[in-house]
Amino acid sequence: MKQERLRILHLEDDPMDAELVLLTLTSEGVDCEVQVVSRRDEFSVALERGGMDLILADFALPAFDGMTALAMVRQKLPDLPFVFVSGKLGEEAAIESLKSGATDYVLKSRLSRLVPAVQRALTEAQERSKQRQTERDLEVAHAEIEKRAEDYRNLFNSIRDVIVVADHNRTILHVNQPALQDIFGYDSPDVIGQSSGILYANDEDYERTGKEVFDVKAPVKGKLVELHFRRKSGEVFIGELYAMKRLDRFGNVTGNISIFRDISERKKAEAALRESELRRMQLQLELVYAAEIQAKLLPRVYPQIGGFEISARCLPAKQVGGDFYDWQQVSPTLINLTLGDVMGKGMAAAMLMATVRAALHAVTLYNRPAQAVYLAEKALYEDLENSESFVTLFHAQLDATARTLSFVDCGHGYVFVRRQDGAVETLNPRGLPLGVQGDEVYQEGTVRLGKGDVVVLYSDGLVDAKPELELTHEALARQLAGKKSAQEMADALIALTGKPDPQPDDITVLVLRGL
């Protein structure tokens, strides 16, 4: 029988991340249809409409959050599997999400866990549903066992866990045939009249459960234990045994009832999850080391160059990022300045960032900006093409004696000059980003800088952090009024973002001020 298509509601505001999740599911054979929503009203309408098998949700969105979404789902659909798929989820948040009813969580940087997590969530939901149905069925069967014997037998045989009814000596009296065949491989005649020990893997477990659970004088309260059982074929498997006393209508103990469930697949899934968590912790440790290394790649000391001062800040969205700034002292009066932004964020962007920085270092010391960028693009083109990525870049050379800045803008655009009188100038020309076209001829521009003039370079993360502020060049330039140093100016621009958590993208600022 063809399996029905899995219906998924995905709460995600990043279309690229949503597409990546869908691609991950389908590439691993999950037949699904995914509805993507990004706002609370859309999510609420989808819940009212119903019909979904699973919910995937980002932990934090600009105007909504995953914990609120989880609360809405648990109030309306308490058993619906809910998996967080987030770019950033700390340990405390992860624990809190699981306590609040989330089935699992997957980091966007570890989407290899997505399909196992989805499968485990669906399996657990099915098991919970089966268990609750079993308990309800057993309660009905016990209440009506004498007056509705036929209904009891039909219900008894429909249960997918193996139910064994035995006397005081643990001799099997009744058993539900379909489940018995499915789990143990026996037919009813094979076990009726036999000791229930035929189902156990070893005599020690059989004897122990007899003493702990099936003692006639012991309390009536049931007990759940994990044991090893044996199929007719001789195969041993791990299962759950829920044992209870069998009572008559007056509450007298007449034997016992055992419910057997095969949990071997669940145990495998739990072991896989533990292994996955170990790998996640190892990756987290590696990210910490990577962040330390990346921080050390950025310049540690501001250059001393007559007539100018420089300040810069870089805040990765994750532990590591794709933004970078750099400078090289060519001579006492010449200095190269660079600000780059690799497409994306996280470890992949950080690795490309280090490659781009190394390539630029190799060519910028003895070449003018246009030639240096051309040589770097030639060296990087194959790597960028293979990684399906690109880099926006602003590279310049400051001549402190002539007070001129010669520059090349490779698709960056986030740069302006604020004159001492407050006037704002945009720098042209602009070319294509590195990696977009292999034969780009980069045009070099020049701007003269007087006392009090300021050049501001920044990445798009500065704008994306607070899109409602509409941070144009002019709006940013107004924030510099009254600031007396490049450091104050850089700090003022960073402060505009409010340091959002989660931070949507890497944020980098470089300020060059004429003295």
TrEMBL record:
<dbReference type="InterPro" id="IPR000014">
    <property type="entry name" value="PAS"/>
</dbReference>
<keyword id="KW-0378">Hydrolase</keyword>
<dbReference type="InterPro" id="IPR000700">
    <property type="entry name" value="PAS-assoc_C"/>
</dbReference>
<dbReference type="InterPro" id="IPR001610">
    <property type="entry name" value="PAC"/>
</dbReference>
<dbReference type="InterPro" id="IPR035965">
    <property type="entry name" value="PAS-like_dom_sf"/>
</dbReference>
<feature type="domain" description="PAS">
    <location>
        <begin position="148"/>
        <end position="223"/>
    </location>
</feature>
<feature type="modified residue" description="4-aspartylphosphate">
    <location>
        <position position="58"/>
    </location>
</feature>
<dbReference type="InterPro" id="IPR001932">
    <property type="entry name" value="PPM-type_phosphatase-like_dom"/>
</dbReference>
<dbReference type="InterPro" id="IPR036457">
    <property type="entry name" value="PPM-type-like_dom_sf"/>
</dbReference>
<keyword id="KW-0597">Phosphoprotein</keyword>
<dbReference type="Pfam" id="PF07228">
    <property type="entry name" value="SpoIIE"/>
</dbReference>
<dbReference type="Pfam" id="PF00072">
    <property type="entry name" value="Response_reg"/>
</dbReference>
<dbReference type="InterPro" id="IPR001789">
    <property type="entry name" value="Sig_transdc_resp-reg_receiver"/>
</dbReference>
<dbReference type="InterPro" id="IPR011006">
    <property type="entry name" value="CheY-like_superfamily"/>
</dbReference>
<feature type="domain" description="Response regulatory">
    <location>
        <begin position="7"/>
        <end position="123"/>
    </location>
</feature>
<feature type="domain" description="PAC">
    <location>
        <begin position="223"/>
        <end position="275"/>
    </location>
</feature>
<dbReference type="Pfam" id="PF13426">
    <property type="entry name" value="PAS_9"/>
</dbReference>
<dbReference type="InterPro" id="IPR052016">
    <property type="entry name" value="Bact_Sigma-Reg"/>
</dbReference>
<protein>
    <submittedName>
        <fullName>SpoIIE family protein phosphatase</fullName>
    </submittedName>
</protein>
